Amino acid sequence: MELRVSSRRIFRPLLALLLIGTAGVYSAAKAQTQPNPPVDTMESRVQGCTACHGTHGQGTDNDYFPRLAGKPADYLYNQLVNFREARRKYPPMNYLVTYLSDDYLHQIATYFSQQRPPYPPPATPTVSPATLARGKDIVLNGIPGKNVPACAACHGSQLTGMQPAIPGLVGLHADYISAQLGAWRSGSRHAIEPDCMHAVAIRLTDDDVNAVASWLSTQPAPQNPVPAPASSLKTPLACGSEPQ
Ligand code: HEC
Ligand code: HEC
């Protein structure tokens, strides 16, 4: 499992970067023959992002490239800063945002938060019905015996997240979800302190992670997939990125 994810993490993104590199050379060559300088629109700024995240931030078929569209703007902004400050590690992302200003990152985050492309069809389950049932139970009820709060207590009953900075969990691939929970457990992903997701993730076993990731990836998006309003839920643990 670990191996499968890490080879994807390395090789597919490299291929995508190569593609972007070629596109860059091509547009540079084109620019030389163009009379007018290219206009600095939001679409042109995010062009380097879309090979991996889709034209409207809908994600791609690659299990590992996450959807950005419709996630709360402050959540996306926090992640871009996390990559810039190395609180999250994924070399192509760390590299792309190294020299971008807070203001620029804010504009990119706002742009993707406002995109509304359709959600992918829910994944077909590849685990047993018992594992799916366990995943559903953890997401909706938590694991009281281990002090794991319900994921829905913070990510919303519709799992579409909460403004301003809690992301939705629908529309993500199982491999991406389990890799993120794994990154929190191993300490390679951090959020603003107190890092409530670290507290949640370290209470989960490998089997729990597999169960929640599998169940979440099989859930269709709700009719109106917008994040819940700010402060509409009282988070059961303190989260630095979602002050209440
Ligand atoms: C080479 C492929 C690639 C490119 C190009 C790329 N990304 Fe990413 N991005 C990823 C991957 C893979 C992740 C998940 C990394 C991880 O945490 O393991 C990610 C994560 C993110 C996240 C966090 C998503 C979340 O839900 O937590 C944001 C925001 C983001 N990227 C924005 C951008 C923006 C903006 C650009 C363009 C400036 C960009 N990305 C370009 C592959 C890419
Ligand atoms: C106490 C509130 C809280 C609870 C409970 C909680 N989360 Fe989170 N979760 C957050 C916050 C806040 C973030 C954003 C962290 C950041 O800024 O990186 C987050 C982010 C995530 C992400 C990253 C999404 C992405 O696009 O990269 C995943 C995956 C996730 N949570 C899964 C879960 C699962 C599964 C559970 C239940 C086992 C859970 N969360 C329970 C608050 C919570």
From TrEMBL:
Residues 31-116, 130-220 form the Cytochrome c domain. Gene3D superfamilies: Cytochrome c-like domain (1.10.760.10). InterPro entries: Cyt_c-like_dom (IPR009056), Cyt_c-like_dom_sf (IPR036909), Cytochrome_c4-like (IPR024167), Cytochrome_c_Oxidase_Subunit (IPR050597). Transmembrane segments: none annotated. Binds 2 heme c groups covalently per subunit. GO terms for molecular function: electron transfer activity; heme binding; iron ion binding. Heme c 2 binds at C151, C154, H155, M197. Keywords: Heme, Iron, Metal-binding, Signal. Heme c 1 binds at C49, C52, H53, M93. Residues 218-244 are annotated as: Disordered. GO terms for cellular component: periplasmic space. Residues 1-28 form the signal peptide. This is C-type cytochrome.
